[in-house]
Design goal:
Layout (H helix, E strand, L loop, with lengths): L13 E10 L2 E10 L4 E7 L4 H4 L10 E7 L11 H22 L7 E6 L3 H11 L5 E5 L7 H4 L6 E6 L3 H11 L6 E6 L9 H18 L20 E3 L2 E3 L1
Parallel strand pairs: 3-4, 3-5, 5-6, 6-7, 7-8, 8-9
Antiparallel strand pairs: 1-2, 2-4, 9-10
């Protein structure tokens, strides 16, 4: 067992570790960050093409969560492979990594959540569908959940879909996907102009919204009183600024 999973009382207040995770016949690079007594783990799976979106922007330690930022590895022939085949390959990696994390932390079993951004959001959703109740919560940002349409109805974990309010095509895809989800779910808009998506303020808002979703559904805690109202509505509705849009 890696030291970061230790339950000893003399653990440092925060531990960071670079390691490798077995995923079938390959190993994946992973960055683990955990407080001394985390309430849960969030796996952030990202492909090489989206590395700059994963590090260091997304961190949920303020909520008492540990994170595993996992670099997924597309197959060598990915340039000629079908997009669906590549997605299946990456989904399998994320599933195997989740099983590894569950095994490594078996001395102190705690809930596991998934986070996916952009094209990697579909990977998180497909993995959540396969893993069922092994996953406690899912958050996606600027994703294409419609590309995982065949799996959406199988997801059991509460799912938050975050979309920039200026991105009409992504919003339309997420609205469509909403009708296929049978789990507790929410579609929330993040303010800002589309060309500013990569600015620090956008990532901070996404981080805050994701933290509160995990706080409620992964840790079973009440949302903070000063949390933006768009996340506090009825599951399954598209809500913005306190208004529920049917």
């Amino acid at each position: 067992m890696l030291p970061i999973f230790s339950t000893q009382s003399d653990r440092p207040p925060h531990t960071v570790l670079e390691t490798t995770v077995p995923a079938g016949h390959i190993t994946l690079q992973a960055h683990l960050s955990a407080p001394a007594a985390p309430g849960g783990w969030v796996i952030i799976g990202y492909s090489r093409h989206y590395r700059h979106f994963a590090l260091p922007h997304y961190s949920f330690g303020r909520t008492g969560l540990a994170t595993m930022q996992l670099q997924l590895s597309p197959p060598q022939a990915s340039l000629s492979a079908l997009e669906s085949d590549v997605a299946l390959h990456l989904t399998q990696q994320l599933i195997l990594a989740t099983h590894w994390l569950r095994s490594e932390s078996s001395a102190n079993p705690i809930p596991i959540g998934l986070f996916g951004a952009y094209q990697d959001a579909g990977i998180a959703l497909s993995a959540a569908a396969f893993l069922g109740r092994e996953i406690g919560a899912v958050v996606t940002w600027q994703g294409h959940p419609d590309r995982s349409m065949n799996h959406l109805s199988e997801i059991q974990a509460p799912t938050l879909l975050l979309v920039n309010e200026s991105d009409e095509s992504i919003l339309a895809a997420n609205v469509q996907a909403r009708w296929w989800l049978r789990c507790t779910h929410q579609l929330s808009l993040v303010p800002g102009r589309l060309r500013l998506l990569r600015e620090k303020s956008s990532f901070q808002m996404v981080n805050q919204l994701a933290e509160e979703w995990y706080r409620r559904h992964l840790l079973g805690r009440q949302p903070l009183k000063n949390f933006p109202s768009q996340l506090l509505g009825k599951p399954g509705n598209h809500e913005w600024s306190g208004r529920i849009l049917q």
